[in-house]
Automatic annotation (TrEMBL):
Its main location: membrane. The chain crosses the membrane at residues 228-247. InterPro entries: RUS_fam, UVB_sens_RUS_dom. It comes from Thermothielavioides terrestris (strain ATCC 38088 / NRRL 8126). One of its GO terms (cellular component) is membrane. This is Protein root UVB sensitive/RUS domain-containing protein.
Length: 451
């Protein structure tokens, strides 16, 4: 009696090889599953087990990302040619020492800019990775347009342009590298982050080679300055459009300020919970990404941010009415003047995820149409503020969010180093270990006997 065995891909259940065992005297027969040539080539550039080992938005993002990289490769060659001309390549009257000083100065300042930008903005890149991924290419294209100016400028203006372009490239490197790492972590769903990055590097290599080949032909044929500028504008437009489409495809599962606001507003308006795919279609890449809030009618607009206790208590802008209140997990200050308001939250020690505080901020802003007209003081003197949602109700909402596919364990709301407020003398009381408690008890008994 013959039996069959199969080697399968556990990610998708695809049969890789079939084995047939006929009996004791017969040898094991094996038959590999034929894979079409095109599919085999694609497997070399896609993560193992695709599409089951990545998110649904992976292919769309990588397609647009490859197209933008192709356009960027051509513009890079045009910009590099302009830089070489500006440094004096092909000009016998130019000084090699002067060109070297230009290069060293630009590289030095760009490295300093890299350190400063990473220190200042590093914490904000992961929560806002889609914004920074697009911003990185804005920096890159701006640097390339500055490069085109170098051949026509005298020495010191040329130095300023080279330094500025270098700084923009360093900002691009930090923003692109950090945001890509965050996006890769989002795409990898089976712990295959390293392999996904390796395959992405293979994709970029092929696209860059194709772009260099096409760019070499363009550089050879296009010499006229006006035509170069027109070509750069067209390619930069393609580059930015493809990059914008790429980040628009991504359906992040973490709740940053904008996504959390969209989700909570939908619940307040209609009692419905949006999925990551639905929110991705609504969120903005360039606007409303850093804590913008509004009332139900939109008559009152404002901003909310997480701050230290000193920044909350010490901030008193002129002409604003102010109200402060405290809950078990945070302090909140609200300032308003006319149709504008500002909210600040200082989280208490022990608060791991500020999602509940942000829900309260969105909820307060939602009801400002009536609350601000009546005056915040009278509004909060009631037993419960208008639109109050209990902790039990919020837990129900958060459970529904998790069921809809949101990852509530990731804190994507704070874009700076998280700070918590300790109420008391500021000393951290460290509990004794079991061994120390035993030693102290025995010491106490000994002293009692001596007495």
């Amino acid at each position: 009696m013959s039996r069959s065995y199969y080697d399968i891909d556990p990610a998708g259940g695809e049969v890789l090889c079939t084995y047939t065992e006929g009996g004791e005297q017969e040898k094991l027969k094996s038959e590999k599953t034929d894979v079409p040539l095109l599919k085999a080539i694609l497997y070399a550039f896609l993560p193992a087990g695709y599409p089951h080992t990545v998110t649904d938005d992976y292919l769309a993002y990588q397609t647009y990302d490859s197209l933008q990289a192709f356009a960027s490769s051509i513009t890079s060659l045009l910009a590099n040619r302009a830089v070489l001309e500006g440094l004096g390549v092909g000009d016998s009257s130019s000084s090699p020492t002067g060109a070297l000083i230009l290069k060293i100065t630009g590289d030095t300042i760009s490295r300093i800019a890299t350190i400063l930008f990473a220190h200042r903005m590093g914490q904000a890149i992961e929560p806002e990775c889609k914004f920074y991924r697009f911003l990185a290419d804005l920096f890159n294209d701006s640097a390339q347009f500055l490069d085109l100016l170098t051949p026509a400028l005298p020495y010191f203006p040329k130095l300023a342009v080279i330094v500025s372009a270098g700084v923009l490239r360093s900002l691009c490197g930090v923003a692109a590298g950090a945001s890509k790492a965050s996006l890769s972590a989002h795409f990898a769903v089976t712990g295959n982050l390293a392999e996904l990055n390796a395959k992405e590097a293979s994709q970029e290599t092929v696209v860059s080679l194709l772009g260099m080949l096409a760019g070499s032909l363009v550089v050879r044929l296009v010499e006229d300055k006006q035509l170069v500028w027109l070509l750069m504008v067209a390619l930069a437009a393609v580059h930015l459009i493809m990059n914008y489409r790429a980040v628009r495809c991504v359906r992040m599962r973490s709740l940053n300020r904008q996504r959390a606001t969209i989700v909570f507003r939908e619940w307040l308006d209609h009692g419905a919970v949006l999925t990551p795919a639905q929110v991705a279609r609504r969120e903005s890449i360039l606007r409303n990404g850093r804590g913008n809030l509004a009332s139900k009618t939109g008559e009152y607009t404002g901003f909310c941010e997480f701050v230290t206790y000193g920044q909350l208590r010490g901030w008193n802008p002129k002409g604003y009415h102010r109200y402060d209140f405290e809950t078990s997990s945070y302090f909140m200050g609200i300032w308003h003047r006319g149709g504008h308001f500002h909210m600040r939250i200082a989280l208490k020690e022990g608060t791991k995820n500020p999602l509940s505080a942000w829900f309260d901020a969105v909820n307060h802003a939602y009801h400002f149409d009536s609350a601000l007209k009546d005056g915040l003081q009278s509004h909060y003197e009631n037993e419960m503020p208008l639109g109050y949602v209990s902790d039990e109700q919020k837990e129900t909402i958060f459970a529904a969010l998790a069921a809809a596919g949101w990852d509530l364990e990731v804190n994507a709301l704070e874009t700076r180093l998280p700070v918590r407020v300790r109420v008391g003398d500021g000393k951290k009381i460290v509990p004794f270990s079991e061994k120390e408690q035993t030693r102290l008890l025995s010491h106490g008994h000994q002293e009692a006997k001596n007495d």
